Amino acid sequence: MKNRYLTDLQVTLFQTTNKTLYSSVSPIYELQQKPVILTGQEIGLKTTQLIQSAKQEVLVLFYKFDVQSDLGRQIYDSLLYLKRKAQETKIPINICILINSLHPVTDFFYRENTDSGLENLQSDDYFNIHFATHETFAFGSLKSKMIIVDGHRATILSGDADATSNRKQHIATMIKGLIVNDMRDDFNQLWFKYTKNQLTALTEDPHNNEHAPSTHVPCFFISKQEKGNPFSLYSPSPYQIALVSAIKKATKCIHVMTPHLNDPYICEALADACNQGIEIKILTRQSHPDMGIILNKIKTEHLNHIQIRYAAMPDDDEPDDIIAKYISVDEILVFVGSSSPDVQDMKYSRVADVIFEDEETVRDFENNIFGKQFQNGTNHYQDAFFQLIMLIDKHYIRIDNNGCIEKSDKLQNMLTDITNSTDEPLNKIQQLIYKSLPILKEPTWINIRNPYSYRDVYNQMIMLGFKSIIDEIVPEDLKLLTNSPYTFKFNANNAEVELVDDREIELRP
Protein backbone atom coordinates (compact mmCIF):
# COMPACT_ATOMS: atom_id res chain seq x y z
CA MET A 1 0.00 0.00 0.00
CA LYS A 2 1.34 3.42 -0.98
CA ASN A 3 2.34 5.66 1.97
CA ARG A 4 1.16 2.95 4.36
CA TYR A 5 3.23 4.13 7.32
CA LEU A 6 2.32 7.81 6.98
CA THR A 7 -1.34 6.93 6.45
CA ASP A 8 -1.34 4.88 9.66
CA LEU A 9 0.25 7.78 11.56
CA GLN A 10 -2.33 10.24 10.24
CA VAL A 11 -5.19 7.93 11.19
CA THR A 12 -3.79 7.74 14.73
CA LEU A 13 -3.40 11.53 14.88
CA PHE A 14 -6.92 12.24 13.68
CA GLN A 15 -8.50 9.58 15.89
CA THR A 16 -6.90 11.05 19.02
CA THR A 17 -9.63 12.78 21.01
CA ASN A 18 -7.51 15.37 22.84
CA LYS A 19 -6.12 17.70 20.15
CA THR A 20 -5.54 20.68 22.45
CA LEU A 21 -1.88 21.03 21.48
CA TYR A 22 -2.35 20.43 17.75
CA SER A 23 -1.42 23.38 15.57
CA SER A 24 -0.99 21.86 12.09
CA VAL A 25 -1.23 18.38 10.64
CA SER A 26 -0.88 18.67 6.87
CA PRO A 27 -2.12 16.19 4.27
CA ILE A 28 0.41 13.75 2.83
CA TYR A 29 2.34 15.35 -0.04
CA GLU A 30 4.97 14.16 -2.48
CA LEU A 31 7.95 16.52 -2.75
CA GLN A 32 8.94 18.10 -6.07
CA GLN A 33 12.59 17.52 -5.22
CA LYS A 34 14.37 15.07 -2.96
CA PRO A 35 14.93 16.53 0.50
CA VAL A 36 18.41 18.03 0.80
CA ILE A 37 20.15 17.12 4.05
CA LEU A 38 22.52 19.77 5.40
CA THR A 39 25.16 19.77 8.10
CA GLY A 40 27.94 22.08 9.23
CA GLN A 41 28.88 24.85 6.81
CA GLU A 42 26.44 23.52 4.21
CA ILE A 43 23.58 24.91 6.31
CA GLY A 44 24.77 28.49 5.98
CA LEU A 45 25.71 28.14 2.30
CA LYS A 46 22.40 26.61 1.20
CA THR A 47 20.39 28.97 3.42
CA THR A 48 22.12 31.91 1.74
CA GLN A 49 21.20 30.55 -1.70
CA LEU A 50 17.62 29.89 -0.60
CA ILE A 51 17.04 33.41 0.75
CA GLN A 52 18.75 35.15 -2.15
CA SER A 53 16.52 33.29 -4.61
CA ALA A 54 13.36 34.81 -3.08
CA LYS A 55 11.02 36.68 -5.44
CA GLN A 56 8.11 37.64 -3.19
CA GLU A 57 8.56 36.67 0.44
CA VAL A 58 10.92 35.35 3.11
CA LEU A 59 9.60 34.10 6.46
CA VAL A 60 12.08 33.52 9.29
CA LEU A 61 11.21 31.76 12.55
CA PHE A 62 13.77 31.02 15.28
CA TYR A 63 13.96 30.45 19.01
CA LYS A 64 17.21 32.44 19.28
CA PHE A 65 18.93 34.67 16.75
CA ASP A 66 22.19 36.59 16.80
CA VAL A 67 23.86 38.21 13.78
CA GLN A 68 27.21 37.57 15.44
CA SER A 69 26.74 33.83 14.93
CA ASP A 70 27.88 32.14 11.73
CA LEU A 71 24.38 31.35 10.48
CA GLY A 72 22.97 34.63 11.79
CA ARG A 73 25.51 36.65 9.81
CA GLN A 74 24.78 34.68 6.62
CA ILE A 75 21.04 35.25 6.98
CA TYR A 76 21.61 38.96 7.67
CA ASP A 77 23.87 39.33 4.61
CA SER A 78 21.33 37.48 2.45
CA LEU A 79 18.55 39.82 3.54
CA LEU A 80 20.82 42.77 2.85
CA TYR A 81 21.36 41.36 -0.65
CA LEU A 82 17.58 41.16 -1.15
CA LYS A 83 17.23 44.76 -0.04
CA ARG A 84 19.75 45.96 -2.63
CA LYS A 85 18.11 43.76 -5.27
CA ALA A 86 14.64 45.18 -4.51
CA GLN A 87 15.98 48.72 -4.75
CA GLU A 88 17.64 48.02 -8.11
CA THR A 89 14.76 46.09 -9.70
CA LYS A 90 12.00 48.08 -7.99
CA ILE A 91 10.19 44.81 -7.35
CA PRO A 92 8.84 44.68 -3.80
CA ILE A 93 9.63 41.85 -1.42
CA ASN A 94 8.19 41.09 2.01
CA ILE A 95 10.27 39.84 4.95
CA CYS A 96 8.63 38.64 8.18
CA ILE A 97 10.80 37.63 11.12
CA LEU A 98 9.40 36.05 14.28
CA ILE A 99 11.74 35.28 17.17
CA ASN A 100 11.15 34.06 20.70
CA SER A 101 12.12 36.57 23.38
CA LEU A 102 12.36 36.31 27.12
CA HIS A 103 10.31 38.10 29.73
CA PRO A 104 12.41 40.52 31.85
CA VAL A 105 11.98 38.20 34.84
CA THR A 106 13.30 35.28 32.79
CA ASP A 107 16.25 37.38 31.62
CA PHE A 108 17.58 37.13 35.15
CA PHE A 109 18.20 33.41 34.58
CA TYR A 110 18.65 33.18 30.81
CA ARG A 111 20.44 35.16 28.13
CA GLU A 112 18.37 37.99 26.70
CA ASN A 113 17.13 37.36 23.16
CA THR A 114 15.61 40.70 22.18
CA ASP A 115 18.56 42.27 20.34
CA SER A 116 19.08 39.97 17.36
CA GLY A 117 20.88 42.53 15.19
CA LEU A 118 18.28 42.17 12.44
CA GLU A 119 16.67 45.40 13.66
CA ASN A 120 19.34 47.26 11.70
CA LEU A 121 17.59 46.26 8.49
CA GLN A 122 15.06 49.00 7.81
CA SER A 123 12.16 48.95 5.38
CA ASP A 124 12.10 51.18 2.31
CA ASP A 125 9.82 51.57 -0.72
CA TYR A 126 10.46 48.05 -2.03
CA PHE A 127 11.97 46.18 0.90
CA ASN A 128 9.23 45.57 3.46
CA ILE A 129 10.64 43.99 6.60
CA HIS A 130 8.58 43.32 9.71
CA PHE A 131 9.59 41.96 13.13
CA ALA A 132 7.61 40.26 15.84
CA THR A 133 8.60 38.60 19.12
CA HIS A 134 6.90 36.18 21.45
CA GLU A 135 7.63 37.04 25.06
CA THR A 136 7.88 33.94 27.20
CA PHE A 137 8.69 32.84 30.71
CA ALA A 138 10.43 29.49 31.25
CA PHE A 139 7.56 27.62 29.53
CA GLY A 140 5.70 28.14 26.27
CA SER A 141 8.66 29.14 24.09
CA LEU A 142 8.63 29.24 20.32
CA LYS A 143 11.21 26.62 19.36
CA SER A 144 10.18 26.05 15.75
CA LYS A 145 13.04 26.84 13.36
CA MET A 146 12.06 27.46 9.75
CA ILE A 147 12.95 29.63 6.78
CA ILE A 148 10.17 29.71 4.15
CA VAL A 149 10.61 31.29 0.72
CA ASP A 150 7.79 32.16 -1.71
CA GLY A 151 5.47 29.53 -0.23
CA HIS A 152 7.05 26.53 -1.97
CA ARG A 153 10.64 26.20 -0.73
CA ALA A 154 11.79 25.92 2.87
CA THR A 155 14.47 24.84 5.30
CA ILE A 156 13.48 23.27 8.61
CA LEU A 157 16.31 23.33 11.14
CA SER A 158 17.20 21.62 14.40
CA GLY A 159 19.44 24.43 15.69
CA ASP A 160 19.23 28.20 16.09
CA ALA A 161 21.15 31.03 14.49
CA ASP A 162 22.97 32.06 17.66
CA ALA A 163 26.59 32.08 18.77
CA THR A 164 26.21 29.08 21.10
CA SER A 165 25.23 26.91 18.12
CA ASN A 166 28.40 27.56 16.09
CA ARG A 167 30.24 24.43 17.22
CA LYS A 168 27.25 22.25 18.00
CA GLN A 169 26.17 19.38 15.80
CA HIS A 170 22.90 20.30 14.15
CA ILE A 171 21.15 19.56 10.88
CA ALA A 172 18.77 21.19 8.45
CA THR A 173 16.53 19.78 5.74
CA MET A 174 15.59 21.68 2.57
CA ILE A 175 12.29 20.77 0.96
CA LYS A 176 10.32 21.93 -2.07
CA GLY A 177 6.67 21.28 -2.82
CA LEU A 178 3.10 21.93 -1.74
CA ILE A 179 3.90 20.91 1.83
CA VAL A 180 5.73 24.24 2.20
CA ASN A 181 2.46 26.11 1.73
CA ASP A 182 1.13 24.33 4.83
CA MET A 183 4.28 25.39 6.68
CA ARG A 184 3.55 28.96 5.53
CA ASP A 185 -0.01 28.68 6.85
CA ASP A 186 1.39 27.56 10.20
CA PHE A 187 3.71 30.58 10.26
CA ASN A 188 0.74 32.79 9.35
CA GLN A 189 -1.17 31.52 12.41
CA LEU A 190 1.70 32.62 14.61
CA TRP A 191 2.16 35.90 12.78
CA PHE A 192 -1.48 36.82 13.26
CA LYS A 193 -1.37 35.73 16.89
CA TYR A 194 1.49 38.08 17.76
CA THR A 195 0.96 40.96 15.29
CA LYS A 196 -2.81 40.83 14.57
CA ASN A 197 -1.88 40.97 10.87
CA GLN A 198 -2.11 38.33 8.17
CA LEU A 199 0.71 37.66 5.75
CA THR A 200 0.46 39.44 2.41
CA ALA A 201 -1.08 37.20 -0.24
CA LEU A 202 1.40 35.78 -2.73
CA THR A 203 0.93 36.97 -6.30
CA GLU A 204 2.16 33.60 -7.57
CA ASP A 205 0.07 30.85 -6.03
CA PRO A 206 2.26 27.92 -4.86
CA HIS A 207 -0.53 25.59 -6.06
CA ASN A 208 0.44 26.52 -9.61
CA ASN A 209 3.26 23.99 -9.12
CA GLU A 210 0.75 21.27 -8.30
CA HIS A 211 1.46 19.37 -11.51
CA ALA A 212 5.24 19.73 -11.34
CA PRO A 213 7.25 16.48 -11.53
CA SER A 214 7.20 14.49 -8.29
CA THR A 215 10.08 12.67 -6.62
CA HIS A 216 7.66 10.21 -4.99
CA VAL A 217 9.00 11.13 -1.54
CA PRO A 218 5.85 11.30 0.60
CA CYS A 219 5.78 13.36 3.77
CA PHE A 220 3.61 15.49 6.00
CA PHE A 221 4.12 18.46 8.30
CA ILE A 222 3.13 18.67 11.97
CA SER A 223 3.42 21.46 14.49
CA LYS A 224 2.46 21.86 18.12
CA GLN A 225 0.96 24.76 20.04
CA GLU A 226 3.02 26.45 22.73
CA LYS A 227 1.73 26.11 26.31
CA GLY A 228 3.02 28.39 29.04
CA ASN A 229 1.07 27.03 32.00
CA PRO A 230 2.94 24.16 33.72
CA PHE A 231 -0.11 23.46 35.92
CA SER A 232 -2.58 22.83 33.09
CA LEU A 233 -3.94 19.35 32.43
CA TYR A 234 -1.84 16.99 30.34
CA SER A 235 -2.44 16.97 26.59
CA PRO A 236 -0.50 14.82 24.11
CA SER A 237 1.76 16.40 21.50
CA PRO A 238 1.10 15.44 17.86
CA TYR A 239 4.80 14.60 17.47
CA GLN A 240 4.64 12.42 20.58
CA ILE A 241 1.54 10.63 19.31
CA ALA A 242 3.04 9.98 15.87
CA LEU A 243 6.44 8.88 17.20
CA VAL A 244 5.05 6.54 19.87
CA SER A 245 2.73 5.01 17.25
CA ALA A 246 5.67 4.46 14.87
CA ILE A 247 7.83 2.96 17.63
CA LYS A 248 5.08 0.53 18.66
CA LYS A 249 4.81 -0.73 15.08
CA ALA A 250 8.58 -1.07 14.56
CA THR A 251 9.78 -4.50 13.48
CA LYS A 252 13.53 -4.00 12.91
CA CYS A 253 15.34 -0.94 14.22
CA ILE A 254 15.04 2.59 15.62
CA HIS A 255 17.76 5.25 15.43
CA VAL A 256 17.57 8.40 17.56
CA MET A 257 19.75 11.53 17.40
CA THR A 258 18.71 14.20 19.90
CA PRO A 259 20.09 16.48 22.65
CA HIS A 260 17.42 15.40 25.16
CA LEU A 261 15.39 12.24 25.62
CA ASN A 262 13.26 12.13 28.76
CA ASP A 263 9.60 12.22 27.72
CA PRO A 264 8.12 9.34 29.75
CA TYR A 265 5.78 8.11 27.01
CA ILE A 266 8.50 8.01 24.35
CA CYS A 267 11.01 6.45 26.77
CA GLU A 268 8.44 3.80 27.71
CA ALA A 269 7.79 3.02 24.05
CA LEU A 270 11.52 2.70 23.30
CA ALA A 271 12.05 0.40 26.27
CA ASP A 272 9.09 -1.77 25.25
CA ALA A 273 10.45 -2.00 21.70
CA CYS A 274 13.86 -3.03 23.01
CA ASN A 275 12.28 -5.69 25.23
CA GLN A 276 10.71 -7.12 22.05
CA GLY A 277 14.10 -7.43 20.38
CA ILE A 278 14.04 -4.24 18.27
CA GLU A 279 17.58 -2.93 17.71
CA ILE A 280 17.88 0.62 19.06
CA LYS A 281 20.70 3.12 18.61
CA ILE A 282 20.68 6.46 20.45
CA LEU A 283 23.10 9.33 19.91
CA THR A 284 22.76 12.16 22.41
CA ARG A 285 24.65 14.59 24.59
CA GLN A 286 26.19 13.16 27.75
CA SER A 287 23.21 12.79 30.06
CA HIS A 288 23.28 9.70 32.26
CA PRO A 289 19.97 10.34 34.09
CA ASP A 290 18.06 10.61 30.79
CA MET A 291 19.46 7.31 29.59
CA GLY A 292 18.75 5.71 32.94
CA ILE A 293 15.04 6.41 32.43
CA ILE A 294 15.06 4.08 29.40
CA LEU A 295 17.63 1.50 30.50
CA ASN A 296 15.96 0.88 33.87
CA LYS A 297 12.85 -0.34 32.01
CA ILE A 298 14.76 -2.83 29.85
CA LYS A 299 15.21 -6.44 30.88
CA THR A 300 18.79 -7.59 31.40
CA GLU A 301 18.68 -10.06 28.51
CA HIS A 302 17.71 -7.26 26.11
CA LEU A 303 20.25 -4.63 27.17
CA ASN A 304 22.49 -5.74 24.32
CA HIS A 305 19.75 -4.65 21.87
CA ILE A 306 20.24 -0.98 22.75
CA GLN A 307 23.37 0.99 21.95
CA ILE A 308 23.79 4.46 23.41
CA ARG A 309 26.54 6.82 22.34
CA TYR A 310 27.42 10.31 23.54
CA ALA A 311 28.31 12.79 20.81
CA ALA A 312 32.00 13.61 20.35
CA MET A 313 33.92 15.73 17.88
CA PRO A 314 35.44 13.47 15.18
CA ASP A 315 38.87 15.12 15.38
CA ASP A 316 39.56 14.91 19.09
CA ASP A 317 36.89 12.64 20.63
CA GLU A 318 36.08 15.42 23.09
CA PRO A 319 32.47 15.53 24.36
CA ASP A 320 30.35 17.67 22.06
CA ASP A 321 27.01 19.37 22.43
CA ILE A 322 24.51 17.91 19.99
CA ILE A 323 21.35 19.75 18.96
CA ALA A 324 20.44 17.67 15.91
CA LYS A 325 16.97 16.11 15.99
CA TYR A 326 16.52 13.00 13.87
CA ILE A 327 14.68 9.73 14.37
CA SER A 328 14.29 6.86 11.90
CA VAL A 329 12.10 3.78 12.28
CA ASP A 330 12.60 0.53 10.34
CA GLU A 331 14.81 2.29 7.77
CA ILE A 332 11.76 3.84 6.08
CA LEU A 333 10.29 6.53 8.39
CA VAL A 334 12.19 9.74 9.23
CA PHE A 335 11.24 12.41 11.79
CA VAL A 336 13.21 15.68 11.41
CA GLY A 337 12.71 19.23 12.63
CA SER A 338 12.84 21.15 15.88
CA SER A 339 11.33 18.63 18.34
CA SER A 340 13.41 16.90 20.99
CA PRO A 341 11.61 13.92 22.53
CA ASP A 342 11.78 15.56 25.94
CA VAL A 343 9.25 16.89 28.42
CA GLN A 344 9.88 20.54 27.56
CA ASP A 345 9.14 20.18 23.85
CA MET A 346 6.36 17.62 24.20
CA LYS A 347 4.44 19.61 26.83
CA TYR A 348 5.32 23.28 26.59
CA SER A 349 7.27 24.57 23.57
CA ARG A 350 6.00 25.27 20.08
CA VAL A 351 7.80 22.95 17.67
CA ALA A 352 7.52 21.93 14.01
CA ASP A 353 8.62 18.79 12.17
CA VAL A 354 8.36 16.87 8.92
CA ILE A 355 7.88 13.10 8.70
CA PHE A 356 9.11 11.30 5.55
CA GLU A 357 8.37 7.79 4.35
CA ASP A 358 11.19 6.86 2.00
CA GLU A 359 14.00 4.31 2.24
CA GLU A 360 16.40 6.36 0.11
CA THR A 361 15.88 9.43 2.31
CA VAL A 362 16.66 7.31 5.38
CA ARG A 363 19.87 6.06 3.74
CA ASP A 364 20.89 9.65 2.98
CA PHE A 365 20.40 10.66 6.61
CA GLU A 366 22.17 7.54 7.88
CA ASN A 367 25.15 7.93 5.53
CA ASN A 368 25.57 11.70 5.87
CA ILE A 369 24.65 12.28 9.49
CA PHE A 370 23.73 9.54 11.91
CA GLY A 371 26.15 6.76 10.96
CA LYS A 372 29.30 8.90 11.08
CA GLN A 373 28.38 10.68 14.30
CA PHE A 374 27.29 7.48 16.01
CA GLN A 375 30.56 5.78 15.11
CA ASN A 376 32.52 8.63 16.71
CA GLY A 377 30.41 8.68 19.89
CA THR A 378 31.36 7.44 23.34
CA ASN A 379 29.77 4.13 24.35
CA HIS A 380 27.40 4.57 27.32
CA TYR A 381 28.28 1.19 28.83
CA GLN A 382 31.99 1.93 28.58
CA ASP A 383 31.49 5.40 30.05
CA ALA A 384 29.23 4.05 32.82
CA PHE A 385 31.80 1.37 33.72
CA PHE A 386 34.46 4.06 34.01
CA GLN A 387 32.15 6.21 36.18
CA LEU A 388 31.46 3.32 38.54
CA ILE A 389 35.12 2.29 38.78
CA MET A 390 36.10 5.87 39.66
CA LEU A 391 33.35 6.13 42.28
CA ILE A 392 34.19 2.79 43.92
CA ASP A 393 37.89 3.69 43.87
CA LYS A 394 37.07 6.96 45.66
CA HIS A 395 35.27 5.02 48.38
CA TYR A 396 38.09 2.46 48.53
CA ILE A 397 40.51 5.29 49.40
CA ARG A 398 38.12 6.61 52.09
CA ILE A 399 37.66 3.15 53.58
CA ASP A 400 41.40 2.46 53.55
CA ASN A 401 42.18 5.82 55.16
CA ASN A 402 39.68 5.03 57.93
CA GLY A 403 41.56 1.86 58.79
CA CYS A 404 39.06 -0.70 57.47
CA ILE A 405 41.87 -2.79 56.00
CA GLU A 406 39.96 -6.02 55.37
CA LYS A 407 37.19 -4.26 53.47
CA SER A 408 39.59 -2.05 51.52
CA ASP A 409 41.70 -5.08 50.50
CA LYS A 410 38.62 -6.82 49.13
CA LEU A 411 37.68 -3.73 47.13
CA GLN A 412 41.20 -3.32 45.76
CA ASN A 413 41.40 -6.95 44.60
CA MET A 414 37.93 -6.76 43.06
CA LEU A 415 38.75 -3.51 41.20
CA THR A 416 42.00 -4.98 39.88
CA ASP A 417 40.36 -8.17 38.60
CA ILE A 418 37.48 -6.45 36.83
CA THR A 419 39.54 -3.58 35.42
CA ASN A 420 41.96 -6.08 33.84
CA SER A 421 39.10 -8.11 32.35
CA THR A 422 38.84 -8.17 28.55
CA ASP A 423 35.07 -8.67 28.58
CA GLU A 424 32.65 -6.28 26.88
CA PRO A 425 31.73 -3.20 28.99
CA LEU A 426 28.20 -4.47 29.72
CA ASN A 427 29.54 -7.80 31.00
CA LYS A 428 32.10 -5.98 33.14
CA ILE A 429 29.32 -3.84 34.62
CA GLN A 430 27.38 -6.99 35.54
CA GLN A 431 30.48 -8.38 37.27
CA LEU A 432 31.04 -5.07 39.04
CA ILE A 433 27.49 -4.99 40.40
CA TYR A 434 27.60 -8.63 41.49
CA LYS A 435 30.98 -8.38 43.22
CA SER A 436 31.13 -4.82 44.59
CA LEU A 437 27.79 -4.47 46.36
CA PRO A 438 28.30 -7.34 48.87
CA ILE A 439 31.68 -5.85 49.84
CA LEU A 440 30.36 -2.30 50.13
CA LYS A 441 27.40 -3.58 52.18
CA GLU A 442 29.70 -4.87 54.92
CA PRO A 443 29.16 -2.72 58.06
CA THR A 444 32.05 -0.71 59.40
CA TRP A 445 32.56 0.99 62.75
CA ILE A 446 29.29 2.23 64.21
CA ASN A 447 27.40 2.12 60.94
CA ILE A 448 25.73 -1.28 61.18
CA ARG A 449 23.04 -0.44 58.61
CA ASN A 450 23.79 0.57 55.01
CA PRO A 451 27.22 2.21 54.79
CA TYR A 452 27.38 5.47 52.88
CA SER A 453 29.71 3.96 50.27
CA TYR A 454 27.15 1.25 49.57
CA ARG A 455 24.25 3.68 49.19
CA ASP A 456 26.27 6.03 47.00
CA VAL A 457 27.41 3.33 44.56
CA TYR A 458 24.01 1.61 44.54
CA ASN A 459 22.18 4.83 43.64
CA GLN A 460 24.75 5.63 40.96
CA MET A 461 24.14 2.22 39.39
CA ILE A 462 20.41 2.96 39.31
CA MET A 463 20.99 6.41 37.82
CA LEU A 464 23.15 4.91 35.05
CA GLY A 465 20.35 2.51 34.12
CA PHE A 466 21.23 -0.85 35.65
CA LYS A 467 18.19 -1.48 37.84
CA SER A 468 17.28 -4.64 35.92
CA ILE A 469 20.75 -6.11 36.53
CA ILE A 470 20.50 -5.29 40.23
CA ASP A 471 17.02 -6.82 40.43
CA GLU A 472 18.23 -9.98 38.72
CA ILE A 473 21.58 -10.74 40.33
CA VAL A 474 21.62 -8.92 43.68
CA PRO A 475 20.11 -10.85 46.62
CA GLU A 476 17.07 -9.28 48.29
CA ASP A 477 18.99 -8.53 51.50
CA LEU A 478 21.43 -6.38 49.53
CA LYS A 479 18.81 -4.31 47.75
CA LEU A 480 18.25 -0.74 48.80
CA LEU A 481 15.17 1.42 48.49
CA THR A 482 16.22 4.25 46.16
CA ASN A 483 13.73 6.69 47.68
CA SER A 484 15.69 6.72 50.92
CA PRO A 485 14.26 9.08 53.58
CA TYR A 486 17.71 9.96 54.86
CA THR A 487 19.06 13.45 54.35
CA PHE A 488 22.78 14.11 53.96
CA LYS A 489 24.83 17.25 54.68
CA PHE A 490 28.25 18.29 56.02
CA ASN A 491 28.80 19.23 59.64
CA ALA A 492 31.19 21.79 61.13
CA ASN A 493 34.06 19.29 60.91
CA ASN A 494 33.44 18.92 57.16
CA ALA A 495 32.38 15.32 57.74
CA GLU A 496 29.30 14.05 55.95
CA VAL A 497 26.47 13.34 58.36
CA GLU A 498 23.10 11.64 58.12
CA LEU A 499 20.02 13.09 59.79
CA VAL A 500 18.11 10.30 61.54
CA ASP A 501 15.35 11.18 63.98
CA ASP A 502 16.68 14.75 64.04
CA ARG A 503 20.09 13.49 65.27
CA GLU A 504 23.30 13.96 63.32
CA ILE A 505 25.19 10.69 62.85
CA GLU A 506 28.58 10.99 61.19
CA LEU A 507 28.76 8.68 58.22
CA ARG A 508 31.29 5.92 58.23
CA PRO A 509 32.71 4.41 55.03
Q: Any key phrases for this structure?
A:
elongated; ten-stranded mixed β-sheet; 15 helices; 509 residues; alpha+beta
Would you kindly provide a written description of the structure presented here, covering whatever features stand out?
This protein is of the alpha+beta class and 509 residues long. It is built from 15 helices and 20 strands. Strands 1, 2, 10, 11, 12, 13, 14, 15, 16 and 17 form a 10-stranded mixed beta sheet that branches. A 7-stranded mixed beta sheet has the order 3-9-8-7-4-5-6, sandwiched between helices. Helix 7 links the parallel strand 11 and strand 12. The protein is elongated and about 90 Å long. The N and C termini lie far apart (64 Å).
Brief description of this entry?
This protein is an alpha+beta fold. It has helices spanning 4-15, 41-52, 70-89, 104-107, 179-195, 238-248, 264-275, 288-295, 343-348, 359-376, 380-401, 405-419, 425-441, 452-463, 467-473, and strands at residues 22-25, 29-30, 36-39, 57-62, 93-102, 127-136, 146-149, 153-157, 171-176, 218-224, 253-257, 279-284, 306-310, 326-329, 333-337, 351-357, 378-379, 487-490, 496-500, 503-506.
